[in-house]
From TrEMBL:
SMART domains: AlaDh_PNT_C, AlaDh_PNT_N. GO terms for molecular function: NADP binding; oxidoreductase activity; proton-translocating NAD(P)+ transhydrogenase activity. It comes from Thermomonas hydrothermalis. This is NAD(P) transhydrogenase subunit alpha part 1. One of its GO terms (biological process) is NADPH regeneration. Its EC number is 7.1.1.1. Residues 147-309 form the Alanine dehydrogenase/pyridine nucleotide transhydrogenase NAD(H)-binding domain. InterPro entries: Ala_DH/PNT_CS2 (IPR008143), AlaDH/PNT_N (IPR007886), AlaDH/PNT_NAD(H)-bd (IPR007698), NAD(P)-bd_dom_sf (IPR036291). Belongs to the AlaDH/PNT family.
Amino acid sequence: MAVIVGVTRETAAGERRVALTPETCRKLTAAGAQVRIVPGLGVGAHFSDQAYADAGAVLDPQALAEADLVLCVQPPEPAVLATLKPGAVLVGMLHPQADPARAEAIRARGLIAFPLERLPRTTRAQAMDVLSSQAGMAGYKAMLIAAQLAPRFFPMLTTAAGTIRPSKVLVIGAGVAGLQAIATARRLGAQVEGFDVRPETREQIESLGGRFLDLGVSAVGEGGYARPLTEEERALQQQRLADHLKGIDVVVCTAAVPGRPAPRIISAAMVAGMKPGSVIVDLAAETGGNCELTRPGDTIDSNGVTVAGPLNLPSLGAIHASEMYARNLYNFALLLLKEGRLVFDWSDELLAKTVWPEPPSAA
């Protein structure tokens, strides 16, 4: 019997993305799977039921009940997990350790969970890397929000009333989100700088037309991520950054350390030293924020400086974010689908290092 693929309906507030698009539905069907979805699955991302049906999906209000492979964006609620087929495979951004009830529901049902945020960041895994694909959309949207909030033009303009200088934009953190934010600011015509404690990002920042802001602090870590700074390094970084921020119009913060709260980079004192009319958009708001004044989900005014902490930015670009995310999941699913059956090769590091809590025995 063909593997049955089911897709959860996203219920998190503001979530519009979907884990399956008509494109990936067609590909999964071609790979020998039977795809079942609940009616209205893709409404938030503007994918119609008819588009899914044309791609080979079966519309079924009880689509998850018999699913062997379940795809999701946000982690399903424990009550939903309890309804899944015992031993089913669950793939998505699951963060099981962040919620004891969720973790217990996965264990109690005997689900084989693949939280894709645990996927090794290797060359082979790039086509399955949900963190990177969604960070790109987040960085893009963060800069557009910054441009909207800023009480000034981004580009230099020559008008009958005189020349208007370009906005000075600083992007903190040069991962995927930060680099996309830099590229977006450049397209909008701003004068852009990028700051990261990893000196190897200089070339990437400059390749996008930005200037690398060197504060004399290096925190090269493992796996392409930054290590935590020492107290001395942090003090030096903050002193130099505070002085630099006095001349910046817009700051977009994107710095993150996986599995830990976002590093605190911009203090309240730094914000107080910025020019009235300046804007800070903190993309790291969901994990505590890079700015001390950030309030997740809110936009505040601090003595004339606007501080925004938007949440779930990829959902604002639901169509393209869903297309990228669904392709990530499809590429990962191909590691499991062999001739229409689910096969687990625990010698494959992408499976063994992603599965939670640990790889089942080969037997």
